[in-house]
Amino acid sequence: MTKMTFPEWAPQRTGFPTSDRAAQIRFLLRFAILAPSGHNAQPWRYEIDHESGSLLINLEWSRVLRVSDPNDRITFMALGTTARNFVRAAECYGLTADAQIVGEGTESYVRVTLTDARDDAEPSTDWIDAITRRISNRSNFYKEELSEPLKARLTDFEVAGVEVRTYTSADDKRALAHLTSISSKKLINSKTFRGELAQHVHPNTTTKRTGMPASGQGIPGPISPLAPFVVRHAKIGTWFSIKDRKQLTDAPMIVVLITPGDAPHDWIRAGMAHEELFLRTTSERLALDTFAAATCDDDSRARLAKRLEVDGYPQILVRTGRAKKQNRPHTPRLRIDDVFTEAPAV
Questions:
Q1: Strand partners, 46
Q2: How many structural domains are present in the chain?
Q3: How confident is the model at residue 234 (pLDDT cuts 50, 70, 90)?
Q4: To 10 degrees, the CA torsion angle through 335, 338, 343, 346?
Q5: Please, what is the average pLDDT of the chain?
Q6: Given 66, 85, 292, 343, which residue has the most CB atoms within 10 angstroms?
Q7: Which of these, 114, 111, 108, lies nearest to 95 by C-alpha position?
Q8: Would you say residue 214 lies in a domain?
Q9: What is the mean pLDDT of residues 75-92?
Q10: Could you give the C-alpha distances from 3 to 223, 230, 236, in angstroms and in order?
Q11: What is the pLDDT of residue 227?
């Protein structure tokens, strides 16, 4: 049984247009589309505002997660992750990209404006390499401490309105693991949640361009064709709970992203910080795994905020470290033509 590969993960890097702004945007979208999103739904829609020469990133409402993300929080975070990819890719081609969150409420979106970099600007890290290698790794991590300089390289960045907190002590990790395990058991044992997840978990030979191969969820290749049935009907919350508890307890470092508010603008900013952390982790040859269960509902988030002693809103929790296995496949990708609207937005 052959795993499907998706050529979008090996985009052409040469031939960047030198002057045509619209062509530059289209070129950079081949990196923007490689961002993470909940259940790999890829809920974004790109447009070019030809009057201003900027990129508009809107939600594609047909790809939101109605059950697992009823408030669209994780969905709006995906606008931030893809915007961050675009910004970092632009830097690699000598441009400055300014991403601004505009609109209000469910009408919020991201406008990215490109400008030529200053002559005295320092050359950027090759973020494109990190973008194309980035992958969620759900295997076990080695129990080893991260050095202070390494932790600083991973988390010493600023996204306005997002606090980045790190936890490495055994007591903190046990507490966060406990809270996450309770939430994950509740979530996975929900029949409606499993029904939606089953629509996004596919056999390893899938040709679908959204969702996740079964192997990425820990389901062996020989039984991957049965993955949707297993996910939908097996009440496996206890197994996930035990796995989450162990992996977070053993993780070298847990990172929590916190915002002062809990509205679309906050969620998009949290998505930008999430992808920045992901890219930095990848650049350091480390792995990252996201745990959304701990923030999936108001009760879970309230317990987490109390344990963290914060007045704000925890948006996402991740673990990072050196993975024992590196064999997870990349997730499918929609083509640029599937998510790009040629006509300017009104």
A1: 57, 340
A2: 2
A3: confident
A4: -120
A5: 90
A6: 85
A7: 114
A8: no
A9: 97
A10: 13, 19, 25
A11: 75
251 token code pair: 């993780």
For helices 170-188 and 237-250, what crossing angle results, to 10°?
160
**DSSP string over 211-264:** SEEGGGGT--GGGGGGHHHHHHH---HHHHHHHHHHHHHH-SEEEEEEESS-SH
Residues 55 and 183 in one domain: no
Both tokens of 206, joined, read 């899938």
Asked if residue 169 belongs to a domain, the reply is yes
What is the band of 122 on the pLDDT scale with cuts at 50, 70, 90?
A: low
Maximum distance among all Cα pairs of the chain, rounded to whole angstroms:
59
Residues 162 and 306 in one domain: yes
Sheet containing strand 109-116, edge to edge, reads 95-102, 109-116, 54-59, 44-49, 340-341
Q: Is the pTM of this model over 0.90?
A: yes
Give the domain range for residue 307: 148-189+235-321
Report which DSSP code applies to 173. Answer: H
Q: Rounded to whole angstroms, how far apart are CA atoms 314 and 268?
A: 13
